[in-house]
Amino acid sequence: MRDPVAVTSTPSSDDLISSAPPVSPFGSLVGWLVALCLFANAWQLIGLNTVLPSYMYSLGYHPTQAGAAILAVGLIGVVSTPLGGVISDRLILSGMEAVKARAYVMAIPGFLVAGAATILFPFLARSNYATLLLMAILAGWGVPLTNASIGALPTDMLQSPGRAGKLFGLIILVGISGGVIAPYVITAISASAGWIVAFAILGVGALIGMTIGLMIPCFEQAMPAKPLERK
């Protein structure tokens, strides 16, 4: 970003980092909450990209049309990924608490849009190809928008880049596992229970991420008592 919002503590973040007690990644509530959000992130988006081509083939669409829909899912992320950071930064600069801004942007325009669009996808996409493309864009829009919040929340909650960095491995390990598991699970479910159930499970995963996002600001015990000063 051109002018990123400062997220380090004052007067000396280096002193805070060096004097902060050791943080166990597996014992940190902050780490698990954010890791579960990244799990929901990878679950919905990787699962959607896995199941979308086969679903379109089942409707009789040409592989070129399926490829265009998958391209639309990816390209919309080019817009929504930075937009999530821009929106939350603007909210912070206008006076909203950093954790609330990150969490609410992640939950509402991010996970809510992705979850609702994914659940509704098999009902609306059958009408015509234009509607299918629109639903693909909406389903692909929401999850990339959560990336900025997922990246910033550990530092915003712990107020220490050093301590937050220790949680990064846990967040990535738990989060990316959603993208590893989703293709196998969703493929099996679509084959046994049908497309509607498969898309619903992907969408519910995103809605669980939304629920966690709305809950994150309530865990004040996971945050320092003194708020951050911002430039």
Number of helices: 9
| Cα-atom radius of gyration | 19 Å
Average of the residue pLDDT scores? 84
In the CATH scheme, the class would be Mainly Alpha
**Full CATH superfamily name:** MFS general substrate transporter like domains
Give the CATH topology. Growth Hormone, Chain: A
Instruction: Please mark out the parts with pLDDT under 50 across 5 or more consecutive residues, or reply none.
Output: 8-18, 224-231
Number of domains: 1
Q: Tell me what the CATH architecture is.
A: Up-down Bundle
Number of E strands: 0
Structural class: mainly alpha
Tell me the distance between the termini: 15 Å
Quote the beta fraction. Answer: under 5%
Bulk shape:
globular
* Portion in helices: over 70%
The largest pleated sheet is described as: none
Order of helices and strands: HHHHHHHHH
Please describe what this structure looks like.
This protein is mainly α and 231 residues long. The protein has one domain (25-219): Growth Hormone, Chain: A (Up-down Bundle), CATH 1.20.1250.20. It contains nine helices and no strands. Helix 2 runs antiparallel to helix 6, helix 2 (29-58) packs parallel to helix 8 and helix 4 runs antiparallel to helix 5 (129-145). The longest helix has 31 residues, at 63-93. The radius of gyration is 19 Å and the shape is globular. Residues 8-18 and 224-231 have low confidence and may be disordered.
